[in-house]
Amino acid sequence: MASAAVERPRPTSKRALAETDAVSYGFAAQEENRGSVRQMDNRTNTIAGWTLAACGLALGLSIVGGMAFHSERPEKMGYAIEGVEEEGAGGGAAEVPIATLLPTADAAKGAEVFKKCAACHTVTQGGANGIGPNLYGTLGEGIGQGKGGFAFSDALKGVGGNWDFDKMNAWLTSPRKFAPGTKMTFAGLGNPQDRANIIVYLNAQGSNLPLPAAPAAGAAAPATDKAPEGKDSVTNADAANNLGNTGTPASGAPSVDPAAAVEGAKAGK
Fold first, then answer.
1. Nearest by Cα to 202 from 121, 94, 261
2. pLDDT tens, 59-69?
3. CATH code, domain with 121
């Protein structure tokens, strides 16, 4: 005989009802907390995923952009920069001696070039020193000396000698190469004709030195196609041997070496 299920009586006291409600509320609160934690985890994972995706996209765009827009030195510069040689220069034609350019140099054009220097230098007689010294009568003077007590760098003082045309040309080409350690910040003039023009302009400002003689045009170079002495120009053999092979024997001289004839007779036996 099956036993009938016994139903527990529902508590009727206030205390028992309160305890039952508290337990039920606790279960409900735990479930709500678990749901909130799961929701927070999902949100964190979503944010992390989007962040990683954005980093990957930025990296990919950077790589693609670098491949598409790589930078190179332009074949032709947009504007000339004084003191900067073009790529590949320096191994070509030799530098033209400044003495070759000075006879045809133009002092008026040199005055225009000097405007680049006017921010630091004066060139009038009695002009004040500025960032750089006054340049009146500079050619012929001692390098790094005088100029009303201007504070020249030790590097320039150590060069020694006087300012002549060649030294001035070297200085204007690259001050830092002429006097390593100089305080002069100007990069230099890359155009030889500009340097010649400004040198004759400076020479006219109180120096008036005679211009150096230009090198002789087309000076004779040592001949390189002349045959070596003692050699035949056609066969490149010793001239003495050549004459020995082609000369006519003297009258009465044997046409065959006697010793060679004896040796030949022995070999034939």
1. 121
2. 888 887 777 66
3. 1.10.760.10
